[in-house]
Write a structure and sequence with these properties.
Structural class: alpha+beta
Distance between the termini: 16 Å
Strand content: 35-45%
Largest sheet: 8 strands, mixed
Number of helices: 4
Helix content: 10-25%
Radius of gyration: 15 Å
Order of helices and strands: HEEEEHEEEEHH
Shape: globular
Amino acid sequence: MSSHQRNMIKQLPISLPKGAKTDVRTQFGALCYRLRKKKVEVLLITSRTSKRWIVPKGWPMDGKTPAECAAIEAWEEAGVSGVSDGRCIGIFSYSKATDDLGELPCVAMVFAIEVQSMADTYPEAAERKRRWMSRKKAARLVDEPELSRIIRDFDPRVLG
């Protein structure tokens, strides 16, 4: 058994019977990272409408764990594939602008995903930009203070 497998957190799939996924008002985000020359870099993407810098995130998906949801969003929004140990590394709140419901208060659970590959073609490639940067720069660019702190304090080299 690898050290990664030993450190995996057991999660149960989400079940959303008869409910709209937006009723939950919880999202799952991916802090995509890589190590370059012993330094941590994180990947930010732009939002589709306002073009703010954000992390990939989305709604719960029936039958998927929170970490699986985060990984799916990382693929759809940033074109990355990677691994997560399943631990939530932080939570942040924000208001999501919606067409039909107005401002929707949300809480996002963030999962670290070590990027193993990046694709040039992925579902939202035409709608977003993506950029690798230092944690310090990424923390300055995101709007949400709690997300900024999560990014700034994140160091996969010290996760046990």
